[in-house]
Structure formats: structure tokens, C-alpha cells
# Entry
Amino acid sequence: MKPAAAHTLEPTYSTAFERLVEGDGIPPNEDLVELLAYAFYKRDKRELIISERATPDQLRGYHAILTPSVRARYREHALMRLEDYGERAIEHARPEIEEWTRKAEILAARDRIIEAVHASTSWRTIVLWNVVAWLLTLTITFLVALGFGAVTITIDPG
# Structure
């Protein structure tokens, strides 16, 4: 069991993660911008370590550089990088998206044509048009025959 005093002590580790990632109240695994900002912070710290320009005391207190304006710059840089990545991903996928769109439009046009052909060649439509054509043929035949005098109609009054 830990002593009660241990709960009131300041953390002995860097608070950079909490300050960069958990600062806005969004769960840390859901805020990609802040996670990337933290990665940039860690990259900068790593470069400082590799360059051997900082003392061990400076490295232990490195998280103190995270003033509100520095945190905002890390987040802004992260957001710009994510936007750039998104734009490049869209540009990379654009030919495939356009091809898929063309195929979808062709398939939709094909389906409309098939639907129109089916609608115009249904048995009801065919029977209706055949009856109309038959009536027109009878009418034309009757009128032609009447015009040549081949058909005479006599009405018997009695």
C-alpha cells in the first residue's frame, strides 16, 4: 500500500503527453492531430538528444517548453501535415475514383436502358400495340376500299 503522501507528489515524469494530447478533454486515442503533435514534440526532443546540445537537466525539463503558444504551433503543424497527407491520398486515389464513377454511370445507364426495353416489350404493351395496329389496318383498308368504289353500302328503307 502506498503512503498517503505519494498521492500528493508532483509527477516525476514528463507531462508533455498530457499537455499536448489530453489537454482538450478528447480521449487521447481519438485525437489524431494531438497525437501527431506529440510525435513532433518527441522528434524534436530526440534530435536535441542526438545533437548533444542539451545537458541532462535541460532534457529532464524539456517538457517545460510546452507553453500554450508552442503547443498551438505543434498542433498547427500536425494539422497542416494531416491535411497535406489527405490531399495527397485523394490525388493518388483520384484516377481510381474517377474510373469507379465512370463505371457506375455506365452501369446505371445500362440498367435504365434495360428497364426501358423491358417496359416497352412487356406482353401487355405488345398486345396493346398489336390491337391498335390491327384497328388501324382495318380502318385504312376500309377507307381504301371505299375510295375505289369496291365497297358500296346500300341502306334498304323498307
